[in-house]
TrEMBL record:
Locations listed in the record: Membrane
Membrane topology classification: Multi-pass membrane protein
Stated family: Belongs to the TspO/BZRP family.
Pfam families: TspO_MBR
Taxonomic lineage: Eukaryota, Fungi, Dikarya, Basidiomycota, Agaricomycotina
Keyword Transmembrane appears in the UniProt entry: yes
Record's protein name: TspO/MBR-related protein
Segments traversing the membrane: 63-82, 94-115, 121-139, 151-174
Signal peptide (residue range): none
Major subcellular site: membrane
Organism name: Marasmius crinis-equi
Keywords attached to this entry: Membrane, Transmembrane, Transmembrane helix
Highest taxon in the source lineage: Eukaryota
């Protein structure tokens, strides 16, 4: 695999420090989800038809911070592997994986405002699908060069993204075309 991906030094320095590595996704998650608490108590969200298996809303503020910490630490493991990689193919995989890491962070950051604030369930589903695909591929790219260490931290995130995409897809499917949801909160 040949890749000419260039990452600015700042994007490599952030995950080099384990504190900033876990802090960045945690802060972005808090900012992105800041309007979620009021939205889930609002009329629009309460009126949504949801697919089977949706956990109580109290689960989400427990699960997401753990996933943010875990993905952040995986980025630390990956950049440490990049720093010691000698093979151009390994360096290429890790560099592309780190570029995808920042891509998935952006997609993750965008999802809550799309779904909860803009009430764009379909656009949020597209975002969620891209987020899951990007994260799965990133996990694959990190796996071998990190000796599977990053995979241990990313598998729960991959599993949760699969579940979250199912929930988002189910909500979109069950509520498409409903006019009674257009009432403002």
């Amino acid at each position: 695999m040949s890749s000419n991906i260039y990452l600015p030094q700042i994007l490599l320095n952030i995950p080099r420090n384990p504190v900033t590595a876990v802090g960045l996704p945690l802060v972005l998650g808090i900012v992105s989800g800041s309007g979620t608490a009021s939205a889930v108590r609002g009329q629009w969200y309460r009126n949504l038809w949801v697919p089977p298996g949706r956990p109580p809303r109290q689960v989400f503020p427990i699960v997401w911070p753990l996933l943010y910490l875990s993905m952040g630490y995986a980025s630390h493991v990956a950049v440490k592997a990049l720093d010691s990689a000698l093979s151009p193919a390994t360096r290429s995989s890790l560099t592309l994986g780190l570029a995808l890491y920042y891509t998935q962070l952006s997609l993750n950051f965008t999802w809550s405002p799309l779904f909860f604030n803009a009430k764009q369930v379909g656009l949020a589903l597209i975002d969620s699908t891209l987020l899951a695909g990007t994260t799965f591929y990133m996990t694959k790219l990190f796996h071998e060069p990190t000796g599977s260490k990053s995979t241990i931290f990313l598998l729960p995130y991959c599993a949760w993204l699969t579940f979250a995409t199912y929930l988002n897809g189910g909500i979109w499917w069950l509520n498409r075309g409903r006019r009674d949801l257009s009432k403002e909160d």
